[in-house]
Amino acid sequence: xxxxxxxxxxxLVAAMACSCAGYKVxxxxxxxxxxxxxxxxxxxxxxxxxxxxxFEKRDYAEAPFAEFAQEMxxxxxxxxxxxxxxxxxxxxxxxxxxxxxxxxIDPRGLSVVVDSRHLLRSVGVDQEDLxxxxxxxxxxxxYSPDNDDEDLVPQNNLYDxxxxxxxxxxxxxxxSLVSSKKDSRNIRQRAIAAxxxxxxxxxxxxxxxxxxxxxxxxxxxxxxxxxxxxxxEERILSQFLGxxxxxTVRFYIEPRDEKTxxxxxxxxxxxxxxxxxxxxxENIEAGMxxxxxxxxxxxxxxSAARFVKFRTSGRRKDDNVGNRxxxxxxxxxxxxxxxxxxxxxxxxxxxxxxxxxxxxxxRRKFQAIFDARTGDLLFYKN
Length: 382
Prior knowledge:
This protein is α+β, with helices and mostly antiparallel strands. It is built from six helices and 17 strands. 25% of the residues lie in helices and 32% in strands.
């Protein structure tokens, strides 16, 4: 009888401990004995590595003086036959919901915030408090939103000369009024005149910047004049160097989290040639540079992952009662991402969620906030 009473007491204590938390968390792979009523779902994050490559193409169609750039401007000789180049490479991790790790929550009065990706943002924290927390991190510089706005490049006007006038209804090349004869100078003479005008503009700009220009101007006036002079310089330079057009292409790689594969994974991204530009990895031609990406897990959390696996959750089944009432999150692991070709190599570190362990939070009421980018636990309070 004493043994039965002891078992009943332990069962009652366990039931009371579970009721303190109130909420229920079910892995979607589980099979509860009783039907589960309404709730919400969240998923653990899965990271894709985004490699953003900015390609540069120099358009010589509007550069009539390209052959004189080295002679008159002291620039390197332009390779008109190789107009393409790789200008910039950035690598970042992008999180999305892992379809293999979804959970159903019966919150029972607990505040739970899930974002549009179905990833867990906070538990036991109000929406307003979460916004204040995010705002505080932004002020500290924890978040650095990307600025994809490119500088606007002034375009050439339609006028052949400053004394040629177009009115409404005129077609390009057929102005209504030409107050002087057509420019009869050969291309070399025009290039010399353009180079001299460029030098004159640069001198004026330097004089304004260093206060050597005649006249008194306000700081706002000086800035306005400097900007206008810079625009004129850009127009003349484009006649020697052409115009540069940039395009950013993003390549997404999903690292495999199999334990035999996470040490190093290699993927072919694209083919590239200065003469032909970008080529898909399926159509790489002979002589093109093959650009690859290698993802290497650093295993900095190896000991932590082993402890979590064998000393916390152990080998419990997904439908085991002991595996409920526990919110789970992923501790992202560090990976080294290397993007390289025959002429360059770029390396950086990225947090990859699926490389890290899945951790159970305590089975009680608490407050927690998770990183929107990596899924890591940022704040916890009982």
